[in-house]
Amino acid sequence: YEVEEMSAAAIAERIYRRTGGKNVYVTFDIDCLDPAFAPGTGTPVAGGPSSAKMLSVLRHMKNIEIVGADVVEVAPAYDHADITAIA
């Protein structure tokens, strides 16, 4: 839950320092989000960050050269209200 204690800018900065900011492929595991924002996953984690916070992290990554991305662990069968699609 370290992500919850850090600002979006601090998370993006840590990613930059670890990767050097070049040729970064981003894999986003949807089950890190609080299930209130993304219930469509097989392994929900209560108390995770909001989708707004994670979008803010992405916005702060503007100085990182992202070459590709994916979103994993999405399980639409568990999301009866289609909330995860807008997360």
SS class: alpha+beta
SSE order, one letter for each helix or strand: HHEHE
The gyration radius over C-alpha positions equals 13 Å
Mean pLDDT: 93
Helix content class:
25-40%
* Total number of domains: 1
Percent of residues in beta strands? 5-15%
Q: Please give the alpha-carbon distance between the first and last residues.
A: 19 Å
Could you give the count of β-strands? Answer: 2
Largest sheet: 2 strands, parallel
The coarse overall form would be: globular
Largest beta sheet: strand ordering: 1-2
Q: Helix count, per DSSP?
A: 3
What features would you describe in this structure?
By secondary structure, the protein is α+β, with helices and mostly antiparallel strands. It has one domain (2-86). 30% of the residues lie in helices and 15% in strands. It has a two-stranded parallel sheet with strand order 1-2. Strand 1, helix 3 (51-60) and strand 2 form a beta-alpha-beta unit. Helix 2 crosses helix 3 (51-60). The mean pLDDT is 93.
